[in-house]
């Protein structure tokens, strides 16, 4: 036998050879086509037993020799022998084709696997490169953000300090101005009262005008002092009873309310959390404006109400009047410092009140809103934190 890796057992080879040669002899004699199936089956057994193709050929020619020698050979016998052999060889041919096809598929699979592995290596390398690049970019941006935050923090401290310095300066200046203005106001009053009989009418009119000017200066200084107290003022929220505070403010404004002849409606007002001083300043200015400008309408009416705000835990405090209203193009400008809609002779005031109210709202983390239509009055509102109820 030939071959290196094929080592069929001798007993198996003998049995297969005997079966093949017996079937070959029968086919040579009868030529029955059914016997060709035995050639195919015997060859299959030989292949399973590990018989190489050359040994299978030797097996065939040994059987052919034994069958032809006794009776001699004829053309028909040789043709049958060839058919029988080819039927057996077909098994080896199919096995060889399957092996070649399998090897081709295997080589293709190996090539594809190598291609995929190379792609995976390339992708892994690219991902690692992108990851490193992203890490560098993140570190760079993080450092930039940190430096920017430090810069903003430094500028914020500077602004807070500058704001506080300005507030302190304004307070000191206003406080220093208040004493001489009060002295001037008192002296002018004494002069007019004690020496009125000795003064000419022109002098009396001049002194009266000076008293009015001094009074306006006193009001301006008081408003500036209030503004400086609010700007930069840090506070710890306290309980503020709005109902009680509004009643106290209205009592202080009895004279103004009487001159305005306004009908004042005060709704049920809750307790809120905030700065009592600042909220009082806010309410006093809003009520003063409402009484001053609301009396200009045909039906003088002032309302102070509270309704639930859109944000949970807050209440919307609103002060409205029935005055002539605020022109739409002025509704943003009225919150500017010293901005007035009327001449002082028409409506006294410093032009600081609404700017002060705006700062109070901002200090409480909210905004002061205005809603107004010509001839239908104006309504100012601000959202405040409701008092937190303690569980009993």
From TrEMBL:
Stored Gene3D superfamilies: 1.10.287.130, Histidine kinase-like ATPase, C-terminal domain, KaiA/RbsU domain
The entry's keywords:
Coiled coil, Kinase, Phosphoprotein, Transferase
Per the database entry, which stretches of residues form a coiled coil?
106-162
Q: Which SUPFAM superfamilies match?
A: ATPase domain of HSP90 chaperone/DNA topoisomerase II/histidine kinase, Homodimeric domain of signal transducing histidine kinase
Q: What is this protein called?
A: histidine kinase
CDD domains listed in its UniProt record = HATPase, HisKA
Domain Histidine kinase per the UniProt entry, residue ranges: 172-388
| InterPro entries in the record | BphY/WalK/GraS-like, HATPase_C_sf, HATPase_dom, His_kinase_dom, HisK_dim/P_dom, HisK_dim/P_sf, KaiA/RbsU_helical_domain_sf, Sig_transdc_His_kin-like_C
Which reaction is catalysed here? ATP + protein L-histidine = ADP + protein N-phospho-L-histidine
Gene Ontology molecular function: phosphorelay response regulator activity; phosphorelay sensor kinase activity; protein kinase activator activity
Kindly indicate where the leader peptide sits in this chain.
none
The EC number(s) this enzyme carries? 2.7.13.3
The EC class name is transferase
Q: Which organism is it from?
A: Leisingera aquaemixtae
Q: Which GO terms describe its biological process?
A: osmosensory signaling via phosphorelay pathway
PROSITE patterns on file: HIS_KIN (PS50109)
């Amino acid at each position: 036998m030939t071959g290196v890796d094929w080592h069929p057992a001798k007993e198996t080879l003998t049995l297969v050879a005997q079966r093949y040669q017996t079937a070959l002899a029968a086919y040579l004699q009868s030529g029955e086509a059914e016997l060709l199936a035995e050639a195919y089956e015997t060859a299959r057994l030989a292949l399973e037993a590990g018989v190489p193709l050359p040994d299978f050929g030797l097996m065939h020619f040994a059987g052919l020799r034994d069958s032809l020698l006794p009776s001699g050979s004829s053309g028909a016998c040789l043709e049958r022998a060839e058919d029988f052999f080819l039927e057996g060889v077909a098994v080896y041919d199919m096995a060889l084709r399957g092996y070649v096809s399998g090897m081709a598929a295997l080589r293709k699979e190996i090539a594809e696997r190598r291609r995929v592995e190379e792609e995976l290596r390339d992708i892994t390398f690219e991902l690692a490169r992108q990851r490193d690049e992203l890490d560098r970019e993140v570190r760079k941006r993080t450092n930039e953000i940190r430096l920017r935050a430090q810069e903003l923090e430094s500028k914020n401290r500077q602004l807070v300090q500058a704001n506080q310095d300005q507030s302190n300066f304004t307070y000191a200046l206003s406080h220093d101005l208040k004493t001489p203005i009060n002295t001037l106001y008192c002296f002018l009053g004494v002069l007019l009262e004690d020496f009125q009989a000795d003064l000419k009418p022109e002098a009396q009119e001049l002194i009266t005008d000076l008293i009015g000017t001094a009074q306006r200066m006193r009001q301006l200084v008081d408003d500036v002092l209030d503004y400086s107290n609010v700007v930069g003022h840090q506070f710890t929220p306290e309980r503020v009873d709005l109902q009680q505070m509004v009643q106290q403010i209205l009592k202080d404004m009895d004279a103004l309310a009487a001159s305005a002849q306004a009908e004042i409606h005060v709704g049920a007002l809750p307790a809120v959390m905030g700065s009592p001083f600042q909220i009082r300043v806010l309410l006093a200015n809003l009520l003063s404006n409402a009484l001053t400008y609301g009396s200009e309408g045909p039906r003088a009416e002032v309302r102070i109400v509270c309704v639930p705000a859109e944000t949970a835990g807050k209440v919307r405090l609103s002060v409205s009047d029935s005055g002539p209203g605020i022109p739409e193009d002025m509704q943003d400008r009225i919150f500017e410092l010293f901005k007035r809609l009327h001449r002082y002779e028409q409506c006294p005031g410093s032009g600081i009140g609404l700017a002060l109210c705006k700062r109070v709202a901002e200090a409480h983390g909210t905004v002061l809103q205005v809603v107004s239509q010509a001839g239908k009055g104006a309504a100012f509102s601000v959202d405040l934190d409701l008092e937190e109820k303690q569980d009993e």
